[in-house]
Amino acid sequence: MTGTDTASLAVLALVATLVSVIAWRHTRATTVDFFLAGRRTGMITNAGAICGDYLSAASFLGVAGAVYASGLDGIWYATGFAAGFVPVLLFVAAPLRRLGTVSLPDFLAVRFDSAQVRVAAVVSVELVILSYLVPQAVGSGLTWELLVGQGIAGLSPYVTGIVVSTVAVGGIVVLGGMRGTTWNQALQFGFLLAVVIWLSALLWAGGFSYPSAVEQASAEPLQAVVGDRLVGVANQLSGEPARFGTPGARYGPIGQVALLVTLVLGTAGLPHVMNRYFTAVTGRAARTTTVWVLGLAGSFYALAVLLGTAARVLVAGRADEPWLAELTVDGVLRVPEHALLVLGRLLAGTPGLAVVSAAAFAAMVSTIGGLLLAAAASFGHDVVAQIWRPSGSQREAVVAGRGAVLVVSVLAAVVAISVEPERFVATFPSVIATMVTWAFALAGSALTPAVLLGIWWRDATARGAVAGIWTGAIIAIGALVVGLFTGPDPSDGLSAVLLAPAMIAAPISAVTIVVVSRLDTGPSVRPRVWTRMHGTAADRQTERMAQITLRGRR
């Protein structure tokens, strides 16, 4: 590691630590303050924090890597990740915030007035969090491996990166809670956006042309690294050799649709992203925040696609350089996720690699922090405060949440260490983006149908929600397991659906909710809950005054 590398990581760590310590000094031992930053987060700050939470290693390294490896088919990831906020804007953000709950399971439990719904949602949320954490840890291991190249205490560089990132972020969350995590995420997203803009500016200053780059990259058929050799990639639409600028390099028609549906539906079920909406001041602020998110995230993903394309051209042209020859086979990167890191060094030397590596760590730190905080809220509030010890103090819930952070961190690190990224290169355009897609699939199958129907269908009942959540989760997990163990092949329609199963699991989950709710004789939504989600400001004020009057009479 050079002095520049050390300085970049040291500055990043120092800023994160200072922000967390300051937040810790201003964080009271209450659930609203620790889990929700006191519900006082401004719209622009919250938009930056949501982007920092959402733009994970899959976005920063994975999207550019997927475009590098698969050309146009890699752009589906950028499209799906960005488009996922459209349903959130139109159908979820404002009603979610208006109900005034603490977490996604808490929202569903209050809407359906059911402890069973809370339990089903908590289990699904924790599974989503764990499956989302693992690829972030994998990304930190890959970045450490390329930037530092040395392990600590006898560990390999890859394992060292995983351990360092999970331990560091776990400490940040335990200290700072939602307030510290919010500031860190907003600052780190600003850093991420600045880095991709800087890299793009360097390209344009050097005469880079995106259309020319696509044409140059498409001149020869795409090839992928398998072991120590290159193999040709067949176009799944035409059967001819795949090319960078044409669709079909990795996915057939069914696979493309399955991937997009999974990513678009999954966003509304991601606990670490949806929990951020509970920190907004009002429902209108939550909706306006989402408009900002769409603009910021869309800009980021457009630049990530451009950078992945540039890497495909520039790496091939300079593959004979000794440091790059170790990372490539005949001009093609062994690990596509290295594309953005290598591009930083190609454009700005070792300092460029250091800056991009620091940005990659910032992306992972930000997302890991949000995930761990969602785990803390789910366990501390929904399990301890609402199920195990309803009469306990808020401090006990906060302490339990901090303990959950440590447990989930260890589990994610252990699973990530067992992953061998190079084994996935021949099958998937990006191991990080692909693994994150599995988390989206689970969230979109188990949680999104219950959230959408809970918000917009008055007759949805608790039994229907429980049945739908479990059905979606079981189908999604079962499909992923079958798809992986039968030999993943995104080019095959059935295999592609099994690996992005929300296209089938989410509709089945929704139908289950509707059918069971229709057969159920139990109550549907309480009027005051519906008013809080959908009533006018005057309606909600009248409801609040009625509740205050009722409590006064008691």
Would you give an account of this structure?
- This protein has 554 residues and is mainly alpha-helical.
- It has a single domain, classed as Sodium/glucose cotransporter.
- 74% of the residues lie in helices and 2% in strands.
- The chain contains 23 helices and four strands.
- A hairpin with a 2-residue loop joins strand 3 and strand 4.
- The longest helix is centred in the middle third of the chain and has 50 residues.
- The radius of gyration is 23 Å and the shape is globular.
- About 5% of the residues have low confidence.
Provide a brief overview of the structure.
74% of the residues lie in helices and 2% in strands. The chain is an all-alpha fold. Strands 1-2 form a two-stranded antiparallel ribbon.
Number of strands: 4
Output the CATH homologous superfamily. Sodium/glucose cotransporter
**What's the number of domains?**
1
Percent in strands: under 5%
Order of strands across the widest beta sheet?
1-2
Question: What number is the mean pLDDT?
Answer: 82
CATH architecture: Up-down Bundle
Number of helices: 23
The radius of gyration over CA amounts to 23 Å
What's the order of the H and E elements? HHHHHHHHHHEEHHHHEEHHHHHHHHH
The CATH topology corresponds to: Sodium/glucose cotransporter
Low-pLDDT runs of 5+ residues are: 7-31
